[in-house]
């Protein structure tokens, strides 16, 4: 079967599976869109409240039915480097809107927490559910029914998925996503990782570690490794919600500002008041979801999106599964090597040709739906470009370069780094899990070793410091799923297990929790479903049981007789310490309602 035929078949089965829910979604979208400019349904008192703080000219414009009003949903805060640049964006957007004959208002703000700040801390247990809070906050901002289109200012891990879920809930209006861009390159990521390992081994102190971290994360913009944040930007562009070439332009540059202004004007040009209506619920369909998955595989993107993409698709009535993601991986080659899949950062990737080069290669290979809807129009081929600043300060686009600027970072579909994308579904008597093999050397993708069971990452780190782990083993870290403690990332385990692997030990991780979007060189079966707290077999593994993690054949199993495994009593953990402090008590309802990881781990829907 050709790659093109395989992509079409997988898309077709998603479309058929989704038809009942997608039809309901589109019917509701059409009903809402058919009511015309939304301010017409507001009473005079409603409308007066809605524009009370506007300038007189904007009030006059909004009093009628023909001037488009653009809502701004922003994740700005100035503690987080990726979101700090958004401080100045509303003013740029409002100015551009007036130039285009429209009005723009900040409709609302959404929270933006940073997994980099909360890694290994109690606050990380709020992280996954912050996505759902962001979706709901987006809905609150748009609920005033004042807007003909919206722009969304977001970058990082849960923020963009939450914004898109919220946007799709208002799928009858157009949505344009506006990124802030990555920070400039600092300390190389592999050097940062080396210092982390030395610190974990006690060979350097905290001062040296902090210096290295500060040189790596050093200014405004997204972290430069290819984790969830930068995977988000790739997704928004390849799914047609960014402007072509917008994703990886550094903040604080004239080109970044020009792209922001252009995005505002584009959003106003695709409302129902004009002749090119592009509601986001129509732009996002089965084709664009498949394009997003293909882009994830081709770039070696974040494992977190095996959860987020399912939740985002569901918001549009589309039923995506892990099996779809895994099957697509079989047909999509890896074309990018960006840390942790390589030594380069996203700035090097962009300089080598970036998303424009990658999209063209995937289109030419027949691996993307070229006819997918986008905010730009005319399918996906116009995204095979790079954006430059014109002499008049506007954005100019030119075709992506024919050759990669660095074929160790970005390659062609004819000479891929590996023939498959590297996100694999594991199955067996422990249920289902995800493994990211693209950053794991082939000789390390299969591990069969005795289990050592932990109920937290702190327990594992304590055992390492006590010298108890210098052997071959599979670390089983349970009670880390969405219902147990909110499914925090277990990023601290990467360094410890990496040290043991470098010592020549065969090690792997099996967990119902998450790893970082920058999951690295240690084979890790993550998102194990069903989770331990829900009766999953991962909770019945004992120390010494032989566990097999096979990333090549897609196997995850404990080598215990089935009857014996069933006889074992389910553990009764004390999770009281995870129920309060740093706001965790407010999320008890989310933990109770959370769906399985392979269903999007959402607390609604």
TrEMBL record:
- InterPro entries reported in the protein's UniProt record: 6-phosphgluc_deHydtase (IPR004786), Dihydro-acid_dehy_C (IPR042096), DiOHA_6PGluconate_deHydtase_CS (IPR020558), ILV_EDD_C (IPR056740), ILV_EDD_N (IPR000581), IlvD/EDD_N (IPR037237)
At the top level, the lineage of the source is: Bacteria
PROSITE patterns reported in the protein's UniProt record: ILVD_EDD_1, ILVD_EDD_2
Its recorded reaction(s) are: 6-phospho-D-gluconate = 2-dehydro-3-deoxy-6-phospho-D-gluconate + H2O
The note on cofactor binding and number reads: Binds 1 [4Fe-4S] cluster.
Q: Name one GO biological process term.
A: D-gluconate metabolic process
- Gene Ontology molecular function: 4 iron, 4 sulfur cluster binding; metal ion binding; phosphogluconate dehydratase activity
Is 4Fe-4S there in the keyword field?
yes
Binding-site positions, [4Fe-4S] cluster = 156, 223
List the EC numbers from the record: 4.2.1.12
| Dihydroxy-acid/6-phosphogluconate dehydratase N-terminal domain segment(s) | 68-380
Record Gene3D superfamilies: IlvD/EDD C-terminal domain-like
UniProt pathway? Carbohydrate metabolism; Entner-Doudoroff pathway
The record describes the protein's role as: Catalyzes the dehydration of 6-phospho-D-gluconate to 2-dehydro-3-deoxy-6-phospho-D-gluconate.
Question: NCBIfam families attached here?
Answer: edd
Concerning its family, UniProt says: Belongs to the IlvD/Edd family.
**What name does the UniProt record give this protein?**
Phosphogluconate dehydratase
Q: Which gene encodes it?
A: edd
């Amino acid at each position: 079967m050709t790659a093109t035929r395989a992509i079409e078949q997988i898309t077709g089965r998603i479309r058929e599976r989704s038809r009942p829910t997608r039809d309901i979604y589109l019917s509701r979208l059409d009903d809402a869109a058919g009511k015309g400019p939304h301010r017409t349904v507001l009473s005079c008192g409603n409308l007066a409240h809605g524009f009370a703080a506007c300038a007189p000219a904007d009030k006059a414009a909004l009093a009628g039915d023909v001037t488009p009003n653009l809502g701004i949903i922003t994740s700005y805060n100035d503690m987080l480097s990726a979101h700090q640049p958004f401080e100045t964006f509303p003013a740029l957007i409002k100015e551009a809107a007036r130039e285009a004959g429209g009005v723009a208002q900040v409709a609302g703000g959404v929270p933006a927490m940073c997994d980099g700040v909360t890694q290994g801390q109690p606050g990380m247990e709020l992280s996954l559910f912050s996505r759902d809070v962001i979706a709901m906050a987006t809905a609150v901002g748009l609920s005033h029914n004042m807007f003909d289109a919206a722009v969304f200012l977001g970058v990082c891990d849960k923020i963009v998925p939450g914004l898109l879920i919220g946007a799709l809930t208002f799928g009858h209006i157009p949505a344009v996503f506006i990124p802030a861009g990555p920070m400039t390159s600092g300390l190389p990521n592999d050097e940062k990782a080396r210092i982390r390992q030395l610190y974990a081994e006690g060979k350097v102190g905290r001062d040296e570690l902090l210096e290295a971290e500060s040189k790596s994360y050093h200014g405004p913009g997204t972290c430069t490794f290819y984790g969830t944040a930068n995977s988000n930007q790739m997704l928004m562009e390849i799914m047609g919600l960014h402007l072509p070439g917008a994703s990886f332009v550094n903040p604080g540059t004239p080109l970044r500002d020009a792209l922001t202004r252009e995005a505002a004007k584009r959003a106003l040009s695709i409302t129902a008041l004009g002749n090119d209506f592009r509601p986001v619920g129509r732009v996002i369909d089965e084709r664009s979801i498949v394009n997003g998955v293909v882009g994830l595989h081709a770039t070696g993107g974040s494992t977190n999106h095996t959860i987020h993409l399912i939740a985002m698709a569901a918001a549009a009535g589309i039923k995506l599964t892990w099996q779809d993601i895994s099957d697509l991986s079989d047909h999509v080659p890896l074309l990018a090597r960006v840390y942790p899949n390589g030594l380069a950062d996203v700035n090097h990737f962009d300089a080598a040709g970036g998303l424009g080069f990658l999209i063209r290669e995937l289109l030419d290979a027949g691996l993307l739906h070229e006819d997918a809807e986008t905010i730009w129009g005319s399918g996906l081929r116009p995204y095979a470009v790079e954006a430059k600043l014109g002499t008049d300060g506007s954005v100019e686009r030119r075709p992506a370069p024919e050759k990669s600027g660095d074929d160790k970072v970005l390659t062609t579909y004819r000479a891929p780094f590996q023939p498959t994308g590297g996100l694999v579904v594991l199955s067996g008597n422990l249920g289902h899990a995800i493994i990211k093999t693209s950053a794991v050397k082939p000789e390390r993708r299969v591990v069969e070793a005795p289990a050592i069971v932990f109920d937290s990452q702190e327990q594992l780190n304590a055992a390492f410091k006590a010298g108890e782990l210098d052997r071959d083993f599979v670390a089983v870290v349970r009670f880390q799923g969405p219902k147990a403690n909110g499914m925090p990332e277990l990023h601290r385990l990467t360094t410890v297990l990496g040290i043991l692997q470098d010592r020549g030990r065969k090690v792997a991780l099996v967990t119902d929790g998450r790893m970082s979007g920058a999951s690295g060189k240690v084979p890790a079966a993550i998102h194990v479903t069903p989770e331990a707290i829900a009766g999953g077999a991962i909770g019945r593994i004992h120390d010494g049981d032989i566990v097999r993690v096979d990333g090549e054949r897609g196997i995850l199993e404990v080598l215990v007789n089935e009857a014996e495994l069933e006889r074992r009593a389910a553990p009764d953990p004390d999770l009281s310490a995870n129920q309060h402090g740093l706001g965790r008590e407010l999320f008890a309802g989310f933990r109770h309602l959370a769906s399985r990881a392979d269903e999007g781990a959402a607390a609604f829907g």
